[in-house]
């Protein structure tokens, strides 16, 4: 019985003062993957950025408007607008970590763009990469 309790304490969400969560990625033992600290924040950020606004039933303002930039010109003005949208939405919904840099690159083989977001949380650094392309847009239209 003590073994079960120690296992629960080891894998429980929020144990030992660490922020943690479970993601939809399946681990090697068949469970959802547990992420801690900055990985938890990046997982949250990924959900925010890839959820178009007005698609989440309980909070229509939740998400981002990045899908609006898929068919925009691939220029510096659009890249700056994308950066502004990311800063605004992450500041509104999850500002636990500091965004240190946002790189925007446009796709050459289709419509859309990708972003690399570099972040820092309690001295720990990590990056999040997200791809926003036509498939995200068409999935958004199907869900509407």
Summary of the model, kept short:
With 144 residues, the chain is an alpha+beta fold.
Describe the structure.
The chain is α+β, with helices and mostly antiparallel strands. It is 35% helix and 28% strand. The model has no long low-confidence stretch (mean pLDDT 83). It has 4 helices and 5 strands, in the order H-E-E-H-H-E-E-E-H. It has 2 domains: 1-35, no CATH class; 37-143, Nuclear Transport Factor 2, Chain: A.
Topology record:
Elements: H1 2-11, E1 20-26, E2 32-36, H2 38-50, H3 76-93, E3 98-106, E4 112-121, E5 124-133, H4 134-143
For this entry, give a set of tags.
alpha+beta, three-stranded antiparallel β-sheet, two-stranded antiparallel sheet, 4 helices
Please name the CATH topology of the largest domain: Nuclear Transport Factor 2, Chain: A
Question: Would you report the number of β strands?
Answer: 5
Major β-sheet strand ordering: 3-4-5
Secondary-structure element pattern, one letter each: HEEHHEEEH
Which class of the largest domain in CATH terms? Answer: Alpha Beta
CATH architecture of the largest domain: Roll
Number of structurally distinct domains: 2
Work out the radius of gyration. Answer: 17 Å
Q: Helicity level, as a percent range?
A: 25-40%
Query: Major beta sheet, specifics?
Result: 3 strands, antiparallel
Structural category: alpha+beta
- Termini gap: 49 Å
Please report the number of helical segments.
4
Mean pLDDT: 83
């Amino acid at each position: 019985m003590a073994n079960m309790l120690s296992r629960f304490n080891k894998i429980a969400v929020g144990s030992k003062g660490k922020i943690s969560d479970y993601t939809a990625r399946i681990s090697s033992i068949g469970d959802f993957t547990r992420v801690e600290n900055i990985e938890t924040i990046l997982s949250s950020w990924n959900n925010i950025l890839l959820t178009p606004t007005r698609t989440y039933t309980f909070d229509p303002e939740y998400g981002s408007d990045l899908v609006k930039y898929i068919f925009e010109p691939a220029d510096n003005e659009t890249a700056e607008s994308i950066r502004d949208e990311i800063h605004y939405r992450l500041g509104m919904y999850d500002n636990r970590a500091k965004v240190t840099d946002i790189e925007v690159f446009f796709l050459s083989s289709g419509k859309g763009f990708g972003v690399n977001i570099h972040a820092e949380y309690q001295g720990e650094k990590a990056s999040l990469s997200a791809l926003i392309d036509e498939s995200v847009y068409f999935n958004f239209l199907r869900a509407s």
